[in-house]
Amino acid sequence: MRPLSLALIGCGAIAAKHVTSIAACPGAKLAAVCDVSAERMEQMSLLWRSASSEKHEIIRFTDYKQLLADPSIDAVVVATISGLHAQIAIEALMADKHVVIEKPIALSLREADEMIRLADERKLKVQVCHQLRYRPLMMKINELVKGGALGSILNASVKLRIHRPLSYYQSSGWRGTWQHDGGMLLNQGIHAIDLLLWYLGSPKRVYGELFSHYPFKETEDAAVGILTFPSGAKAMIEANSITLPNNLEQSLFVLGDKGVISIGGPKLDQIDRWYIEDQPFAEEEARKILLDHSEHVEMYRTLIEACQGNPAAEAALIGLSEGRRTLETIFALYLSAVTAEPKSLPIHEFCTLQMKP
Ligand SMILES: NC(=O)c1ccc[n+]([C@@H]2O[C@H](COP(=O)([O-])OP(=O)(O)OC[C@H]3O[C@@H](n4cnc5c(N)ncnc54)[C@H](O)[C@@H]3O)[C@@H](O)[C@H]2O)c1
After folding, report:
1. Tell me, what's the pLDDT at 1?
2. Nearest to 183 by CA among 324, 41, 331, 12
3. Angle at Cα 155 formed by Cα 152 and Cα 161, nearest 5°?
4. Cys-Cys link to 222, which of 45, 68, 240, 284 (CB 3.0-4.6 A)?
5. Given pLDDT bands bounded at 50, 70 and 90, which one contains residue 219?
């Protein structure tokens, strides 16, 4: 079978993770890169040559539209600044390319809905980069929660206490803007919130408050939220990107009436509690997979197999509807913060530009 021919659009900080993960997958090759910076394209081409056994020349494009017109490309990875994700993905789907799309998938629900419509209509595969879902520990928690091992879920929480210094915002002008980034919930908090929703489903109501500390950026530096689920379960969100002097912790807590899982540490790889009433060796099993962080490669392996027609892999893709649900929940929190009232879901319209004063 011919390897899947992938092109990377956006060669910034996260690009190296995509290049090395593609290089680790036998069924795929990086065929092209695109960025407005020639230097960054050069860096990613060099990285591909050192990380993979393939020594073919990588085609370079400064205009993604020209890349999308190349019939030799099967799939594109959208890893540009967040404000361009949806526009590029929509055009890629219209050009009949499969898409790997960085989070957040869009900065408006209208664009998210358009992507979903196009992907369905054209039967194209989309993989949303909520890659933590492919980390073995997170998959195990999903299996336990969905399989009922924790009993009825009563309460959950996610916490993010990290530090993003001034230099982080100065390094790229798009960061911290409502037009191109969204706030810290959309950029950093989104992974933990996505896990929470993967485990608990869609909330029916969201209450939130936001807090801004840095005067040089538009978006929030901290947020708190309360999510209510149809079952009555409640979840808390506590997130900030101004913890001093550096990253402190992330945590995920799920409490059921038959067990509790609490993980933390700077990289969500520390077990604080792993108790399941009728599974005395559950924690021992979890510790065996605790440090397996192969999620990016697994994310690509799943996409490649789905594109090769494997139905199990297709079912394991993180689809656009999942990405939309996480967006919708964060947007509901934003709307709640603006109106100082709880927001009921679903919501159909929201764009981060509404947050601009
Ligand atoms: N999944 C994750 O864990 C994860 C981690 C980090 C970043 N991200 C996401 O990846 C995206 C990129 O983040 P980053 O940290 O690499 O940002 P970055 O600023 O380092 O890189 C963005 C790149 O996009 C390029 N770009 C801008 N406009 C372009 C255009 N029109 N055509 C082609 N390229 C263009 C820029 O030149 C730059 O090289 C963001 O959306 C971010 O949210 C995801």
Report:
1. 81
2. 331
3. 145
4. 240
5. very high
How is 71-115 classified by DSSP, letter by letter? TT--EEEE-S-GGGHHHHHHHHHHTT-EEEEPSSS-SBHHHHHHH
Any ligand 1 atom below 6 A from CB of 13: yes
- Could you tell me the CA-to-CA distances from 15 to 77, 82, 294 in Å, in that order? 9, 13, 16
Average pLDDT (20-41) is 97
Task: Give per-residue pLDDT as tens, 326-347.
Answer: 999 999 999 999 999 999 999 9
- Mutate-to-test residue for ligand 1 from 19, 44, 62, 80, highest number of ligand atoms within 8 A of CB: 80
| 239-278 pLDDT per residue, tens | 999 999 999 999 999 999 999 999 999 999 899 999 999 9
CA of 80 from ligand 1 middle (Å) equals 4
- Whether residue 114 has its Cβ less than 6 Å from ligand 1: no
What is the best residue among 102, 107, 193 to mutate for testing ligand 1's pocket, by most ligand atoms within 8 Å of CB? 102
Average pLDDT over residues 208-232: 96
Nearest residue by C-alpha to atom 31 in ligand 1: 36
Domains parsed from the chain with CATH numbers: 4-131+296-318 (3.40.50.720), 133-290+324-355 (3.30.360.10)
What would the two tokens of residue 106 be?
């869009």
Strand partners, 101: 78, 128
Average pLDDT of span 40-51: 97
pLDDT at 97 over 80: yes
Regarding the beta carbon of 35 and ligand 1, being less than 6 Å apart is answered: yes
